[in-house]
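The protein record quoted in full:
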Amino acid sequence: MMKSVYRILYFMTEEEGIVIGIDVGTTTTSAAVLKNGRYDILKMGNGDLTIDSVVNYNHSSKSVGFFLKGKNQSRGTVYEVKRILGTKFENMIEEINRNNWSYTVFEGEDGMSTIELSIVSKGETFTKIVTPVDVYADILSSIREFAQKFVGKDTFSSCVLTCPVDFSLRQRQAIQSACVLADLSPVYLISEPTAAAIAFAEKFDKESTGVRHYLVYDFGGGTFDASVVCREGDQYTVMKTKGDAHLGGKDIDVALIREVKSYLESGDRTISPRETLNLKIACKEAKEQLLTQSSIEIFTEFEDGSEDSYMLTQMTLARIAQPIVQKTVAVVREVLATCEPPLTPGDIDCVFLMGGSSCLATVAEELRTLFPPEKLCSDTAELSRVGIALGAARVAACRGLRNGRNVLSMEGDVEDGERNRNGSENVIQLRDVSSYSVRILCGNETRAVVPAQTPLREEHSIRLIPLVESAKFARVVVTVGETEQLEENTVIGVLSVPISQKRRPEEQPLLVRIHVEEDDRVDVIVENELSNRSFHVVLQAGLNDALLARLQVGKERRDEEEAKLSRLDGIRQDIFVMCSGNLSRLDPETAKQVRQINADVAGHRYSEEELERIRQRLVSLLHSSRVCFQ
């Protein structure tokens, strides 16, 4: 019987929905689903394993997954949105200036980073405002539609998305918000390196027994993450993670573009924003082609019709990339040193190279200063590009099983119908870490109780003394954040704990015990040590009911806008068909009027009412010419 690395054993009733894992990267997006007993990488509209994390907006339409190039390109192209997702504008000014994006980022509602597009269409320029959450949701909506078509089902029973290890609570909430807008809620978030470890271990270290330590080197387009993952059988435990949300292959692209622009602008020429985007695409493609070639010529076409080129060699790319790659190696050293207990490179059994940028020769050269070559595991053909989505899909399947669905997990490289060695269901047990700190307000400042990177379900405690004498209640304010300043934190709950007015505060300390659960739930127990009374609450650090209500209103507005754009496009297409299908049967004067109507509709933005009047005018014109129009 045929074998497959990604074959699984599973049983699913007909009413069960789609099981999917999604990895939205800074530069590319991929997804994996369960279909006919296999983990299948979702084939996108271009037939590839990934699509570009790009949305092209026009005045009445949008397209997802590819860069528009050359003359078809507009200023309505949004890319690398993951870098500003869920961020405050004031914290992103340096990043915005450094990237030189072809769109404008400004301070929007609540101080959040927001995108302004100046779109040129048919000679007309107009402004469109979108949020990073909107863009992220558009990408996810496209993935949802691909999955529904590929699997042949409409509903989702288990959906797992990945995110960088150092994404803040606000950034995680932004991802969850985008999922609500894209009709992919509820979802479960796991860290990208954790998902990669699961997929890579299945291929490169499946037969090993005992305790294994993996280093996941995830060098994506926009972020770098390093994680040490301990595997014992089917149990995966994240020991330590560290990431840099502003260190990725994108930074190599920026440095490369800067060098090429400097060469091209050596005369009096200045590169425009549109030319910069074309150059960005060309440089990215050239970098990828250098994986198999020693040199590549980068051609660029300018708006005045002239052309120029730059010869890029592997040696030049290595020189440009080396300072950035060395920063990633420094993060690796730090991750190993801060594990408990500390690890050395010799303690690592496998190094999994994940992300498109990890395929650069410079990466292997730098990592060989720490690890022997045989420990470096890379799969440039597939896993380095889609391994995170595969790992996420496997977690989605196992979550489906734990939730009572009849889905068994992956049995990689087994014969059809075979079960695992001991005949039992092979279910992954995943213990991730919290990406944020849970804090308690003490006076005017907050104090961390559960630090970031603490394993989920690991309890920490703090003892508090009520501040106010003769009060009936002591307020315990629970926040999430990484600074002591309350204003920089997100308050997720306030507990009012009864205290005695007859006793001094120091006589009735409060013991606060906290641990973080899956799905961003924060479990809090407060015990009054004088009365021995305990108070228990589970707080939601993710999307609470108030946020969900606001999102639902936004989703309804978004759906209305989508429906309106669809109606506008339908009327426009109807007009175009009537014009083109009847020209040959019209007298010259009427044909001239019809051509003018066609040109007006193609070159201007009209409201729905205006377009409807134009259509009725066209119908009347064709009727008056006694044309039985198409």
Observations:
- The two ends are 55 Å apart (CA to CA).
- The chain has twelve helices and 28 strands.
